[in-house]
From TrEMBL:
<dbReference type="GO" id="GO:0003677">
    <property type="term" value="F:DNA binding"/>
</dbReference>
<dbReference type="Pfam" id="PF07432">
    <property type="entry name" value="Hc1"/>
</dbReference>
<comment type="similarity">
    <text>Belongs to the histone H1/H5 family. HCT subfamily.</text>
</comment>
<dbReference type="InterPro" id="IPR010886">
    <property type="entry name" value="Hc1"/>
</dbReference>
<protein>
    <submittedName>
        <fullName>Histone H1</fullName>
    </submittedName>
</protein>
<dbReference type="GO" id="GO:0030527">
    <property type="term" value="F:structural constituent of chromatin"/>
</dbReference>
<comment type="function">
    <text>Might have a role analogous to that of eukaryotic histone proteins.</text>
</comment>
Amino acid sequence: MEKFSKLKELIAGVEADADKFYNSGNGAAGTRVRKAMQDLKGLAQEIRTEVTEKKNVK
């Protein structure tokens, strides 16, 4: 559950940059959004692995 909370924090943290990129055309904010999405991808994969392991233990 700790990783899921971290995932939510990461999404909340990138929200301002996403707004700057999509609504103001700020290119640097777009770069930060892309990096955050890559971090989200890795974290999501870790969560998937963890869920699969817990599911298969039962």
